[in-house]
Amino acid sequence: MSLKDQLKDQQKLAMLAKDKQRLGAIRLLMAEIKQREVDTRVELNDQDILAVVTKMVKQRRDSISQFEAAGRQDLADKESAEIDVLQEFLPQQLTAAEIAALIEQAIAESGAAVMADMGKVMAVLKPKIQGRADVGAVSAQVKTRLA
């Protein structure tokens, strides 16, 4: 079953359960997916949908920090609830040891030795960690490893 089909099923279940908060988060995700499909004129596959979910989670985390800085805990709680729903559609997160092993494997695979080769390493790594780890944090780890 594709990720898009799972989303549609979860949307129906949320409607039946009258879970407005969950339904709202799923509808936002479905709208973002539809918008991306209209913009690119291509139906998104599971990998592309994972990228959309990851981006939406990151946006929500940024919003939470801004809301908390402004003293709007009610809005921060709403964003946090949306993150909880969105994360259900992401694969199991990688552990630090798994990330380190993937970095070493990518460095060996790309033949990287210096900082200038970081792009090659990230090109190998990104498909493997998409939706399973924060790409920015992994990028920092690669940078320290190659430095």
TrEMBL record:
GO terms for molecular function: carbon-nitrogen ligase activity, with glutamine as amido-N-donor. SUPFAM superfamilies: GatB/YqeY motif. Gene3D superfamilies: 1.10.10.410, Uncharacterised protein YqeY/AIM41 PF09424, N-terminal domain. This is GatB/YqeY domain-containing protein. Pfam families: YqeY (PF09424). Transmembrane segments: none annotated.
